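If you are new to this repository, start here. Below is one unmodified record pulled from the training split, so you can see the exact layout before writing a loader.
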Amino acid sequence: MSKQVKFYIALTALAIFGIVLMEYSKPKQINWFESYAKHHKIPFGTYIFQDQLDRLFTESGIINLESPPYQYLSQSDSINGTYLFINNNILFGETELEKLLDWTSKGNTLFIASEDFEDQLLDTLKLETDIISKFEVEGDSFHFQLNHKELNTRTAIFDKSRYVSHFNKIDTLNTSIIGTLKNYEIDEDAEDSITTPITILKQPFGDGTIILSTFPQAFTNYFILNPPNHNYTAGLLSYFDESKPVYVDNYYKSGKSFYTSPMYILLNNKALKWAYYIMLIGVVFYIIFEGKRKQRAIPIVQPLRNQTIDFTRTIANMYYEKGKHYEIAQHKIQHFLEYIRTHLHLSTTTINDDFLKNLAARSNNSIEDTKHLFETIESLNQNTQLNTIQLEQLNALIETFKSNNSWKKKT
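And here is the target side for that same chain:
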């Protein structure tokens, strides 16, 4: 690895370390998601409100429900008490709403805190809603107050919303106003002579009661922990019948009621989260520097040796050691005749004067030397008992004959 590559790797590692150090030292970012989940401790969770419910009511007085209201209310006709819904938006649907209204009319209380309500519910109660922007009110926050003389001692302030919903039309004969927005005045010519925005109201429904609030943030951690806002939320709890159970809905929530992914545990812990990020960065670096295609080492394969000469020598030595000089001479003669046929292009079927003249001419040998060689070959063919000297003499004559061949010198 070159020095330049090492320098860049060290520089990158230093940059990553600096980023991790800065991220670790900076304050944790606040999560402003409006979850309204009872186990969330984020600003817009309802962990503190749930804790206060558990403290004020008996253990059997608070029933947390994870199932839809239609499914739960269909289980038994003996369910009675207060059904509490808190979320930024709740839409039941026609069948479920009718089930809830029928249950409420039997002497129960339906409490819904939501920024928006479905049209069927508003039409049933003869209500209409509108919104007020943060830029329309006095100051930079919304001021809320309960109307009851024993509960309106101090004004609650909320500054983390861009707008607030309110009821701008009500059934004046059947509606009781519980809470209003104080730092905004509606035009005096408004319908039903409503001059102050209504945020919480109550209506009888059959033998029961419906309470609607357009300000669900009143039940969140952020609102309750800013004094004197807790008095406002405590005042709303006074409308709950303590002698009957309170059914707290956990089904209609923007936030999850439980975490389905194990990644939540990993990413919710700062140390584990950065360990996970560093691991991913390490994988990326591995892919960049080590993931390149590498050529596998090619083994050196030695070429096969041409062992023809060794084989020939071995066979020759075998014949020679065993004294088979005649057989060696015959092989030598046959090999020489094959040489004449392939290199000098002469037929060796008939050995006569014309053949010897042509062979001498083509091989660059004299006629006398050529005749002497073939006379020696003829004599050796007739003698089956050869000695070493005769065999060496034959080999010398053949090699001398070949050495004068111009064709051989070119090859």
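Two things worth knowing about this chain: Residues 407-411 have pLDDT under 50 and may be disordered. The chain has three domains: 3-27+265-289, 47-258, 308-410.
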